[in-house]
Each structure stands twice: as C-alpha cells, then as structure tokens.
Design goal:
globular, single chain, alpha/beta, four-stranded mixed beta sheet, eight-stranded mixed beta sheet
C-alpha cells in the first residue's frame, strides 16, 4: 500500500468541552477522544503529523503566573516559555492516549512530541500592530504601568478591563523540521508546531531568540503540511462542515469547494476573521503550494469525512 501522509490540526479549544470541564484531567479525557478518532485514520493507512492549538492552556498558565506574582512574589512566566510548557503538556496527553489506543487495537505504532520553534520575521508588520489579547484583565492604572515598565502594548477590551496584546506574525520556517521528517520517515506519529510553534527570531548575531508573540496554529500547520509534502491537510474543529452564512437561519453547509470558490466566499465575507477565515486561508496556501486535498470537520467525524460522507473537502482548481 502506498504510504499516505497527513497533517491533522486540532484546536486548543477542542481539549476543553465547556466552562465546567477545564481541568487537566478534563483536557486529558478530551485528548483521549480525539486520539481515538485520529487512530481511526491511522488504521486506514495514514501516517500523521499532529498540530494543535494552545490558546486556553496558555491563558491558564498566564493567569496562574499573574496571581502568584501578586500574592507571593513569584516570577512571571514569559510567553515563549508558556508556549513550550503547553507543547509539552498537550503533547504528553496526546502521545500517551495514542499509545494506549495503539495497544488496545494491536497497532504497531509509536507517537512522540517535538517541542517546536517556528521562525518569524522580526520585520513582520504584526510587530507594529499587536492584536492578540493574552493574560488576565487589569485596571487601567496597572495596565499603563506595565506598558511603561515592561514595554507592553495594552488595550481596553470592550468595557471588561484592560489587557495585554501581542503580535501574531506569519510563520516562516519550522526550526526542528529535519527532526520531524526523520520521525515521520520512521513511521512515528509526530506531534509538532503546538500552538503554532514557539515564535523565535534570529538576532543580530544569528542566534535564535524567543519573542512575545502568538502564531496562528492553522497557519503553522499549513506550513508544516507544505514543508513535509503532505498528501492531506485536515483541520479538526468545532463544526462538522464549513457553512455559508454561518449562524444565520439560512446557513448552508459546503460539502466540496475549489480554491477559487473558497477565495470567492472569503471575499463575500462568509468566514469569520477569528474563526473559519484563517482555516480557509491556511488550506488555500497548502493547495496552492501543490497539496492534493484538504478537509475540515470535527473530531468525531474524521473517519466519515475521509470516506466522503461528511466534512468539507477543498481541492485545487
């Protein structure tokens, strides 16, 4: 059987069912469900690299860090270290659940996590226009003080308080790509570019250096799919299919579309900026770079979507 290689991007929110199921154990159980669906895919002959989001998890670390700093004087955790922490923790939950599922099904496979840095351009316009809110809410006085002392960009957030915002630059290069390729070539299911990767730049002497930024996980997963020559880019998200006029009484599911159709729907404003739009853009970049097909669906329908029974299939023109 010809070897098939897929990149599966799962959302950080997919590890949190609702506001009452946010604990580490709750997230582990959610990872268990998602892992079983990915193993369904592996049983069909796919080798898989897994990317994942980490927005809520980074938020939890930052909030704990802020509280500890205010109450007992502990040092705060820098954003790039939060990214590394969540890559390890989420990767651990996924690789353990995958290993357990492989054992239950008598599949001779292994899974491993790569703590992954992703290079960004320090001249990316995002650094002049920070837009991604992180951390907890603050009073205006504290926000302005931290902006003055630590160089933060802070904004008032819809009457709820002040928050720090950071840049969201485009991913340029996956630093650990060779290691990821070697793991995949060895047949190991590889968890990588977690949370979009830890954003790093090259400083004036050429050394890598972490920066306070957030990379879109779908953009990073798209870069991964292009870089390893994946046959399929699958985005696992909260909805079974992509919709036109989503959220309206006349919303319509899309079973199949081409890149040209996807671009037209984007121009018509069908996809929300903070939700489906980056997923569609990530898919377009993958297909325009030579990718064969992309799928968007929710975790429980991965196997059915691969069989053409549901999901949204996107193809080159």
């Amino acid at each position: 059987m010809t070897k098939k290689l897929a990149v599966v991007a799962i959302g950080g929110n997919s590890l949190i069912k609702d506001k009452n199921h946010r604990t580490v154990q709750d997230q582990y159980l959610a990872a268990k469900e998602t892992s079983a669906h990915i193993v369904d895919m592996i049983e069909q002959g796919w080798d898989v690299a897994i990317g994942h989001g980490n927005g809520p998890q980074v938020g939890f670390i930052l909030r704990r860090s802020e509280i500890a700093a205010k109450t007992i004087g502990m040092h705060e955790v820098p954003l790039d270290a939060c990214g590394a922490d969540t890559q390890g923790a989420i990767g651990y939950a996924l690789q353990q659940n995958l290993a357990n599922e492989f054992r239950r099904r008598h599949i001779a496979k292994r899974a491993a996590t790569v703590v992954t840095q992703v290079l960004v351009d320090h001249q990316d316009q995002a650094f002049q226009n920070p837009s991604k809110p992180i951390g907890g809410f603050m009073e205006e006085e504290e926000a302005r003080q931290r902006a003055a002392e630590e160089g933060w960009t802070v904004v008032e957030d819809a009457g709820r308080g002040w928050r720090r915002v950071v840049p969201s630059p485009l991913p340029q290069e996956i630093i650990e790509l060779d290691a990821v390729r070697q793991l995949l070539d060895a047949g190991i299911i590889t968890i990588t570019v977690g949370g979009g990767g830890i954003p790093v730049i090259r400083n004036e002497v050429g050394d890598l250096q972490g920066v306070a930024a957030v990379i879109d996980k779908d953009y990073a997963s798209s870069l991964l799919a292009r870089s390893i020559g994946a046959d399929l880019f699958l985005i696992s998200t909260a909805v079974e299919q992509v919709y036109l006029d989503f959220g309206r009484p006349d919303q319509r599911p899309i079973a199949r579309m081409t890149v040209a159709e996807a671009k037209r729907y984007m121009e018509e404003g069908h996809f929300a900026k903070g939700s489906m739009l980056p997923k569609i853009q990530a898919v377009i970049w993958f297909l325009e770079a030579g990718g064969q097909q992309a799928l968007i669906t929710n975790p429980e329908n991965i196997a059915r979507a691969l069989a053409g029974e549901t999901g949204t299939l996107i193809l080159p023109d």
